[in-house]
Amino acid sequence: MGTSVNYTTGNVLLDSGANVTLIRVKVAEQLGLEGKPISVDLDILGGDVQAYQTKVYRLKMYSANQREYTISAVGVPEISNVPRVSTVILRNMESVLGQTLCRGYGAVDVLLGVDYPEMHGGETKQVDGYLLRKSPLGWVMFGSSGDPGQSTTVLHVNVTDRTDLTQFWSTEEMGVKLLNCKCKPSDDMKMSPGEREQFNDMWDSCKKEMEQNKFARKLSDEEIKNYEGPVHYISHHPVIRPEKKSTPVRIVFNSSAAFNGHRLNEYWEKGPDLLNDLFGVLLRFRQHPIAISGDISKMYHQVRIPETDMHVHRFLWRSYESREPDVYVKEVVTFGDKPAPAMALTALRRTAADGASQYPEAANILTKDTYMDDICTSVHTIEEARKVTSDMDAVLDTGGFKTKGWFSNGLLKDDEKTQGEQFVIGDSEEQKVLGVVWDPELDILKYKVKPVATKEKDLMTKRMVLSELAKIFDPIGFTGALLIKGKILMQKLWQTGTGWDEPLSTDDKSDWRRFFTELERLDGVSFERCLMQEPMKPTEIIIFCDASEDAFGAVAYTRWEEDDGNHGVRFISAKSRVAPLKYLSIPRLELQAAVVASRLYATIKEEMSVQFERVIFLSDSIIALSWIRGQSRQYKSFVANRVAEIQSQTDPSDWRHIPGEHNVADKVSRGVSVKDLKGAWKDGPAFLRLPEEEWPKCIPKADVIEIDKERRRRVLYC
C-alpha cells in the first residue's frame, strides 16, 4: 500500500459493518501522504456527537498478484488489533487452498468499509470453523479464535485531551467479545469536600422537589414484584448551572436511550402538531398598545400520565453514596418523549375549553396566542390587561398550570416595578446567535447578538457557515435585508460545488467574515413593537415587492392618518428568497416577488384580528403588473399559475406601480448593511407620511414584446 514511489506492507481489515474506510495516521505519515482536511462527526460514549478534525488520504493498494486499487481513507490515530492465528490452523488452510496465506497480526493499518463493496465479495470456503473469502486483495479469514480471554481494542479517538476516549466504531464483525472493565477514578475529577457537599445538597433537593410536586414517586418492593404490565427504564443525568438561582440542577431524562435493545420513543406516535403559527402569535403580540407576556411554569410537569405509562418511565435513583439504587417512576409528561408536546398542548387546550364559558377572552388567548409554554398577546388598555391576566391565572389554575409571572409595558399592579428586557419566545439560553428581545419600558423589539466564533477560525467550511446561519432567530424578518446577503453567499458555495468539509477559499472566507462582522453589529438594533394607533383609526397595509438577479422579496407596513393630517407608519414584516439556480428572467422574478407579497398579505390578514381598511401593493415592474391585471388563462404555465394565485388572494386593482428609486423592497432583493436598516426600511419611505395624491407617480409604457412572450399561442383550425 502507498504511492508509486513510497509503499509498505500492512494489515488490512475488511469490516462490512463500517460505512467508511479508515487509515492509521502514523501509516499515512510514514507513506508521506498529503491529506485534505475534513471534519467528521463521532458518536461518543453517552450518545453525544463530537466534531473531529482530521484528513482524508488517497492511496494505492496492491494485491499479492500486483493488481492496483485506489482508495480514499479517513485518518484516525488507532483502529484495532489483529490476533495471531496458530501455525497449525494456517497450515491446514494453506493445504486446502493449495497456496500460501499472507496472514499478519498486530495493529490494523487500513480498515476497508462498505464504501468499497467490491472488496467484500469473492469465492468462499470453510476450514476448521473459519470462513475464507477470496477478495480482490487475496484470501481473508473470518471467525473467532474461541479464546474467551482474547480481546481487541475498540477504536477510541481523542476529542479534547488524551484521557478523553471517544468510541468511533465497533469490531463485532471480527467475532471478538469485549471484556468488562473497571475504570479507575481520575484525581482530576475528584471533588473537594465542599464541592461534593454542595453537589449532594443540590442533587437531593431535586429528588425532594420531584416527590413533593408529585413529578415522580418511589416504588415499593411489592409494587415492583407484583406489577405485570410493560416495564422500561430510562436514563437520566444532571445539568448543573450554579448561576441559575431557580434551577441550579436540572435533571434530564433520555427517552431515546436504549434499554435491553429497546428505545421508548420507538413505540410512541408523535401526535398532532398543535403548535400555533409563530409568526401569527408575534403579529397579535404587536397588534395593540398594551402587550402581555408570560411563561407557564414547568408545563410538562403539570400533566399526569396513566399508570401504564408510568412504568415505562421507571428510573433508578440514589444519593451520592454506595448502595443499591431505589426504583422510581415518572408521574408526569417527560420532556424528550416524542408525543410530549402534543400531550402538554392538549391538556392546555382542554383547560382553556373548560374555562371558556366563564372566561371567554382568557380562554381564546390561551388557545390562540401561545407558543408551547410562552403566552404572548396584546390588548387595548391597562385595565383590560389587568383583567385578562387575572382571568388567565384563574383558568390555568383549574388545570394545575401557573405562570412564572406576567410582563407588560403597562403596570399590571399599582406597586409593580419597571420590568427589564424579556425574550419574546424562549429564553436567553436558547438563543444561539441572534434573538429578539422586548423592552417593556420603551416598548420596542430589539436584537441580541452573540459573537460568531466561526469567523475567528483559520479553517472555515460550508458546514460551519451554514451552522451559524441556522442559529439566527428572526421570524419577524426585520433583518431580512441583511440576512439575504448570507443566503446569497451560501448559494454561491453551492454553485461552485464546494464540499461540506472542504476549506473555503481565501476570497470566500473574507466574504463570510465580513458578513458575520456585519451580523454582530445588529446587537441593539430596534424597532417599534406596536403596529396600531390607539384609539383605533382606519388602518391600511402597504406592501412593496421587488426582485434582482440574486434574490426577491416583499416588505409590509401599516399606515394610518393622524389627527394633524400626517400619517403614521410602522414596519410589520419582510420575507425574502434567493433566486433559483435555474435562470429566470427579471420579469419572472418580479412576478415571484409579487407572489411573496400576496402570501405575506394573506398571512397578515388571517392571523391579525383587526380589519384593515384596504391594502396597496407597490411594484416597479410594469410587466409583472400587466400580467397580474390580465387573465391568467391567456399566459403560459409559469406566469398563469402565479397570476392565478395572486388573483385568488388579492384584487388586481390594488396593485400599483412605484418608481424603482422609491421602492424600499429593493433593499431586500439586493442586501444592505446594518446602518441601512434605519430610515426608510425601519420607518417606511417618507412619501407614505404624505397624502396619497402626493405620492411619486410614474407610468412607463409597458414593453408589449416582453408581455407577449408569455402569452399562449392561439391555434386556429379550419
UniProtKB/TrEMBL annotation:
PROSITE patterns: ASP_PROTEASE. GO terms for biological process: proteolysis. It comes from the Eukaryota. Pfam families: Asp_protease_2 (PF13650), Peptidase_A17 (PF05380). GO terms for molecular function: aspartic-type endopeptidase activity. This is Peptidase A2 domain-containing protein.
